[in-house]
Amino acid sequence: MSSANPGDIVHVWKITMPDGVHTINFEHGTTSGKRVVIVDGVEVLRKNWLFSLVGVEKFNISGRSAQITITSTGLRFEYTLEIGGKSLKKFADAERKNTRTWLPSVNQEPHRVVLEITSMDVYLDGMKIETMGEFASEGVRTHFDINGIDAYIRAVSSGDKHRGLSYTLVVNESEELGPISNDFVESYPM
Asked: How many whole angstroms separate alpha carbon 142 and alpha carbon 131?
């Protein structure tokens, strides 16, 4: 766990990725130059006593490269986060385009199912799971189970070339759920 000093936290980001929602805290000691990056409560980078108060700090989150850039606008500092070489807006737009998320309740237990469209990987409660693909008359089915209950994601043509495929989660052959919309990025200057 981290030894975060709440007084030095200057920015917090909440990022939604296929394996879950991650929180990034950034500490910046503006007199000492200290920089600390904390991801999901775990300190992943610490630099103490830096002479330059601006610069770039690189780290990884969920297997992707990330960096926080510190710039000065005179008397204030600004902090920007990039993931996978993309600005937060471009990252969020790409995630919105390339993933679908559902929040089914199975046996009164809430779950989070995420489909990465580009790879057809499925994540259940943050863990990548084994799936089996099947071509069916109405489209493609990606089969898996949620705590022993059969489920699949059905991909069918939307009939609109601009929208592409339409995805539906089917649980236990009865419940059909459309994907939820995600707020992929939340940013909180402190």
From this structure: 6
**Burial degree of 70 (CB within 10 A; 0-12, 13-18, 19+):** buried
Under 8 Å CB-to-CB from 161, ≥6 apart: which residues? Answer: none
Q: What is the pTM of this model?
A: 0.79
- Quick one: CA torsion of 155, 157, 161, 167, rounded to 10 degrees? -30
What are 65-99's pLDDT values in tens digits? 999 999 998 888 999 999 999 998 899 888 888 89
The more confidently predicted of residues 99 and 7 is 99
pLDDT digits (tens, 9 = 90+) for 158-170: 777 777 788 899 9
